[in-house]
Design goal:
alpha+beta, 4-stranded antiparallel beta sheet, 23% helix, Dimeric_a/b-barrel, AsnC family transcriptional regulator, Tscrpt_reg_AsnC/Lrp_C
Length: 78
């Protein structure tokens, strides 16, 4: 499994709805609200045999209320 972090910027007033929809899909390891430029951050494990971008598009990025995302790939844990 490949660990990636995805930050979500939500449309005004939609953060809680987006968070609930993400959580309901049961595919994120952790989900937090954040301060700053983005509203939420999720820790996601993508199967090794899947293309990260396509997997995220199919499983997360179609949720209504998301206006922008930022995906950070990880390479090694220390």
């Amino acid at each position: 499994m490949r660990c990636v972090f995805v930050q979500f910027r939500c449309q005004p007033g939609k953060t809680y709805e987006v968070a609930e929809a993400i959580f309901d899909r049961e595919i994120v390891s952790e989900l937090y609200s954040t301060s700053g430029e983005y509203d939420l951050i999720a820790k996601v494990y993508v199967p090794d045999d899947q293309d990260v971008g396509q997997w995220l598009n199919r499983n997360l990025f179609d949720i209504p209320g998301i206006s922008r995302t930022l995906t950070t790939m990880t390479f090694r844990a220390f």
